[in-house]
Each structure stands twice: as structure tokens, then as C-alpha cells.
Design a protein that fits this description.
The protein is of the alpha/beta class. Helix content is 37%, strand content 19%. The protein has 15 helices and nine strands. It has a nine-stranded mixed sheet, with helices on both faces. A hairpin with a 7-residue loop joins strand 1 and strand 2.
Length: 402
């Protein structure tokens, strides 16, 4: 039974979805991505890269067809039920092309069409290569971003039983991500970079930025926004990482989304010896309130947001309208405080038609966890977690409640 649950995430999804096909459908959209990875290549058709570690960086440009909006629910990936995929109702791979660093630069010049913003996405724990590709394609399409999309995918074995392996893979990939960020920062055609990191990917992003600051004496000024969504990061480690990035006015603008009832982070905390995880703290409580204020970090507490997420790990993306509104404020350089607008007031304003700039870089970035935890993946993920130790509520409840 445990084996069956561990395989639940793959249920209903054929292997090899990255095999290109020429079929198209009226009203379908095309998304072109540059994918940078430290994963090991695999000869398996349509898989491209495994969850094992490679000795060097690889680059691939991938084009994905997304079905017409009338045939899909915004915020979800419509995985093919069988191959070849039906582009009228399912995500479909149009092309994949292996390239090198020079080819990656040429891809950027070709795809940017004058755009000067970059959105770099770093996924979280338990993701395959095709998970990251299709979900980031969905982010780019649904957000309407005007940024050039670049995906950094690190070696995850895509199993809840490989938590420690995935954690070490983030350490393994620090230099590669820093190299990628350095290349973007030094490209004259790029004006600024927004980085979104989710869950365990937040640790990787922070470590790479920390290394850059130590190596160069600062983080490249072009890296202006860093959004950490449900960061699976030790609070004490985060303080050290941040301290080595320089003063607040010399580092990127940080925005953190937290939720105190995040069960995945609660379990992670127990594995780590009951040390709080950054994505599960109360930003209104001391010492966090003062520390965040001093460090000029925007922390949005989404604990009161109800969502269809058994682990409460991706619920801040339950309302795309809200996160787009927040993204519009962020990209305009405006601060958002918890006291300024309650979550309920934000929801009400969005429902009443408050205008937002959903196409902004930060707006696109903050939308990302919609893709990481679509409903089917959330259900499968919850099933896998229950396989570790029975009912997820019992496994992750605070010791005082057991």
C-alpha cells in the first residue's frame, strides 16, 4: 500500500510528455522557456533529465502549447492523459532543443523582443523535470507576464521519501544557480531580474545570493526582487544568510509569504529538531516583527486564508486575483503591510474590480505556487505524506497537541 501511495503523484500521467509533436489547436498559446539544470541527462524519450546530479550545467530551450482558456481552469496544468497529447485540451510539447551557454544567450536575444525583465523561477521539493517545465509554462501563460522566463531546475528525485537527498541537491546546485544569476546580471540587454523560490528552493536561492555577496562584496544590483513562497528554511540560518548579503539598502527587496498552519513546514521543523521554518513563523510576533522591520522585509501572513490544500503549503496562491493584486503593488515599488489591508479586505476589493498589473514580473513570480500545488498534485502529495506515518494531522501536530 505504501508503494501505491508513493506512486500516486504519477497516476493518470504518461511518461515522456516532453516528446515534441507538431499538432496544434485553434486558440492554443505557445510559451517558450529557457531551462537551466544541474540534473543528469537520461536517454529515456520525452523525459530528458532525471533526478540524479550532473557534473555540469545543461541548457535546453523548450516550447509548450497551452490549450485555449475556454478548455482549461486557470492556475492548473492540464496534463496529457495519454500520448500524443491533445493540444485542444492538454499541455503539449512543441519542441525541445539542447543548447550551450552561447546558445542560451542567443535564445534570450531572440525571445526577448525588447523585453528587459527576467523572471527566474526555482522550484521546490518533490518535482520532476517535466513537472517544473509544464508548471512554469502555466505560470508564464496565466500571469500574462512581460518578463523573459527562465527556469532553474535542480536534481529532485520527486519522492517524499527523498527529502534529505533533495536537500543536499540544493547545496550541490548553489554554484550553478549563482553562475546563472551572474550571467543574467552581466548581460547588458537585461534591466532587472526577479527571483521566485518556493519551499526548499528558497534555501537554494538564498545560498546562491549569499555566495554572490561574499564573492563580489554585494548582490548584483540588477537582482531587484526576491520572493520566498512558503520557504523551507531554518530561521537561524536565514538570519545568517541575510546578514552576509549586506545592508538592506544594498540588497534585493525581499517578500516572504508565511502561514502558521503549514503542515509540510511543521513536519520539516520536526525533522530539523524543532527549529522553526521561515515560512511558518508569525511575522507579527517578536523577535520577527522587529527583525523584519529593521531588515526591510515584507512578510505577508496568510494563516487565515482557507484553501483546498491538505498541507496548507501552497494556499497563498488559492486566489490568483489576490496574488496578482499584491504583485502589482510590489512591482510598483509600493510596500504592503499586514495592517494596511486585511486579507478579507483585499479579497473584497479584488472582487469589486480593483485594477491590478497582473502582467508584472513580481505578479508572475508570486503566482508560481499555483503551478507547484495544483489540486491533483496536492491530493497526491498529501497521500504520500500520510504514507510516512499515518494520518497527516497526527504526524504533523505539535507535540503539545498529541
Amino acid at each position: 500500500m505504501t508503494a501505491a501511495l508513493a506512486l500516486a503523484a504519477c497516476a493518470g500521467r504518461p511518461e515522456g510528455v516532453l516528446v515534441p509533436q507538431a499538432a496544434s489547436a485553434p486558440g492554443a498559446s505557445r510559451v517558450d522557456l529557457l531551462v537551466v539544470t544541474t540534473r543528469k541527462r537520461t536517454p529515456q524519450p520525452g523525459v530528458l533529465f532525471s533526478g540524479e546530479r550532473a557534473a555540469k550545467i545543461s541548457w535546453t530551450d523548450i516550447a509548450v502549447s497551452i490549450p485555449p482558456d475556454s478548455a482549461r481552469k486557470i492556475g492548473e496544468v492540464q496534463w496529457p492523459k495519454r500520448l500524443p497529447a491533445n493540444p485542444a485540451t492538454e499541455f503539449t510539447t512543441l519542441s525541445t532543443r539542447e543548447t550551450d551557454a552561447g546558445g542560451a544567450r542567443a535564445w534570450f536575444r531572440r525571445e526577448a523582443h525588447g523585453k528587459k525583465h527576467v523572471l527566474l523561477f526555482v522550484h521546490g521539493f518533490n518535482n520532476t523535470y517535466d513537472d517544473a517545465v509544464y508548471r512554469f509554462a502555466q505560470i508564464v501563460h496565466d500571469s500574462g507576464t512581460d518578463a523573459v522566463p527562465i527556469l532553474f531546475t535542480w536534481p529532485s528525485r520527486a519522492s517524499v521519501f527523498a527529502y534529505n537527498y533533495d536537500r543536499e541537491s540544493t547545496n550541490y546546485s548553489r554554484d550553478a544557480l549563482e553562475e546563472t544569476l551572474q550571467a543574467l546580471a552581466h548581460a547588458p540587454e537585461i534591466q532587472d531580474v526577479s527571483v521566485l523560490a518556493h519551499s526548499m528552493g528558497s534555501f537554494l536561492a538564498l545560498e546562491s545570493l549569499r555566495q554572490m555577496a561574499i564573492r563580489d562584496g554585494r548582490i548584483a544590483p540588477k537582482i531587484r526582487n526576491v520572493i520566498l513562497a512558503a520557504p523551507d528554511v531554518d530561521v537561524d540560518v536565514f538570519k545568517q544568510q541575510l546578514g552576509e548579503m549586506g545592508p538592506a539598502n544594498e540588497r534585493p527587496r525581499f517578500t516572504i509569504f508565511v502561514s502558521r498552519d503549514d503542515r509540510a513546514l511543521r513536519l520539516s521543523s520536526r525533522i530539523a529538531g524543532e527549529v522553526p521554518r521561515l515560512g511558518a513563523i508569525d511575522p507579527k510576533a517578536e523577535p520577527y516583527k522587529t527583525e523584519f522591520s529593521t531588515a526591510k522585509i515584507d512578510a505577508l501572513d496568510l494563516t487565515d486564508l482557507r484553501a483546498d490544500d491538505a498541507l496548507a503549503h501552497g494556499k497563498f496562491a488559492a486566489s490568483p486575483e489576490v496574488v496578482r493584486a499584491i504583485g502589482g503593488r510590489l512591482i510598483a515599488g509600493q510596500e504592503i503591510s499586514q495592517n494596511e489591508l486585511s486579507l478579507g479586505e483585499r479579497v473584497g476589493q479584488v472582487a469589486a474590480g480593483v485594477a491590478t498589473t497582473a502582467g508584472s514580473v513580481a505578479g508572475a513570480a508570486i503566482n508560481a505556487p499555483i503551478a507547484i500545488f495544483d489540486p491533483k498534485v496536492r491530493r497526491a502529495y498529501g497521500d504520500q505524506m500520510r504514507a510516512i506515518g499515518g494520518n497527516i494531522e497526527d504526524t504533523t501536530a505539535p507535540l503539545s497537541q498529541r
